[in-house]
Amino acid sequence: MSAQTNHEGMTCLDCHTSNKENKEGKLLVKDSSQEVCAKCHKGETLDVDKIMVGEFH
Ligand code: HEC
Ligand code: HEC
Questions:
Q1: Which of 40, 42, 44, 45 gets the highest tally of CB atoms within 10 A of its CB?
Q2: Measured in angstroms, how far is the CA atom of residue 51 from the centroid of ligand 1?
Q3: pLDDT score of 4
Q4: What's the rounded Cα separation, in Å, for the pair 13 and 3?
Q5: 16 has which bridge partners?
């Protein structure tokens, strides 16, 4: 990983699948948003409901 300080270099597919829904019915690579973040942010508690509003979408 380089000197990246945010998600700008990431693609949608780092977090999303293109055609397979998880058990919440969302196109995410894991079964919950928290698990998606935990792929890279291990041990951090992130308030997905606040963070995901607007900034990445
Ligand atoms: C850092 C991880 C991440 C990246 C990168 C990301 N998303 Fe998401 N996206 C999420 C998460 C997590 C949710 C679900 C938020 C929630 O629980 O409501 C979401 C929700 C969505 C939704 C709402 C529909 C749904 O399935 O709930 C759309 C549409 C979406 N993303 C499109 C995109 C597109 C297009 C890109 C690329 C430009 C992108 N996302 C990049 C994590 C990401
Ligand atoms: C594919 C790996 C990856 C995933 C998945 C990921 N992140 Fe990140 N995230 C990074 C990297 C790399 C950085 C920049 C380095 C740092 O600050 O630790 C970052 C930085 C952040 C930051 C601080 C910088 C900013 O952009 O504001 C927040 C907040 C954040 N991520 C939230 C989330 C949330 C919420 C999710 C789940 C929806 C998520 N991340 C999923 C890799 C990821």
A1: 40
A2: 11
A3: 58
A4: 21
A5: 28
CA 13 vs CA 6, 43: distances in Å: 16, 22
Domain ranges for the chain, please list them: 1-57
Q: How confident is the model over 12-50, as pLDDT tens digits?
A: 899 999 999 999 899 999 998 888 999 898 888 888 877
Q: How confident is the model at residue 55 (pLDDT cuts 50, 70, 90)?
A: low
| Residues within a 6 A CB radius of ligand 2 | 1, 4-7, 10, 14-15, 33, 36-37, 39-41, 46, 48, 51-52
User: What are the percentages of helix, strand and coil residues in the chain, rounded to 5?
Assistant: 25, 5, 75
**28 has which bridge partners?**
16
